Amino acid sequence: MGIVVFQEKQKFNRVWWVMLLVYGLTALCWWGFIVQIILGNPWGDRPAPNWMIILIWLAFGIGMPGFINVLNLTFEVTTSQITIRSYPLTTHVT
Predict the structure, then answer these.
(1) Closest Cα to residue 35, out of 23, 47, 22?
(2) What is residue 92's predicted lDDT score, i.e. its pLDDT?
(3) Residue 40 CB partners (closer than 8 Å, separation 6+)
(4) Which residue, among 90, 79, 91, has the nearest Cα to 7 in the 3D structure?
(5) Which residues does residue 90 pair with via DSSP β-bridges, in sequence order?
(6) Are 85 and 77 a contacting pair, CB within 8 Å?
(7) Mean per-residue pLDDT, 37-49
(8) Which residues pair with 8 in a beta bridge?
């Protein structure tokens, strides 16, 4: 394995413009869900079916913010190798 010379861990939820995009899209998904599913009013001129609103809400209203919060990138340099880990996408690249 070797002695660790350098290690850095980056989290994407610390980049303000990424979080602005993520939470902006999340807020839009929640708004559409609340208006169409909870209040029962069609959302927009040509509203999507309720199953599609629920699917979009699950993917982008709940799933994407959770994914961004756990996403991280770790660089590790040892005397014998360089390792890059991108959790949860890849577990180990040397």
Answers:
(1) 47
(2) 63
(3) none
(4) 79
(5) 86
(6) no
(7) 91
(8) 75
| The total number of residues written for the chain in this structure | 94
Q: Residue 11's beta-bridge partner residues?
A: 72
> 3-class SS at 3?
coil
Picking from 91, 92, 78, 88, the residue whose alpha carbon sits closest to that of residue 12 is 88
Of residues 15 and 39, the one with the higher pLDDT is 39
What's the rounded Cα separation, in Å, for the pair 88 and 94?
16
| 3-state SS record for 9-71 | EEEHHHCHHHHHHHHHHHHHHHHHHHHHHHCCCCCCCCCCCHHHHHHHHHHHHHHHHHHHHHC
Q: Can you give the pLDDT at residue 10?
A: 87
Does residue 34 surpass a pLDDT of 90? yes
One-letter identity of residue 87:
Y
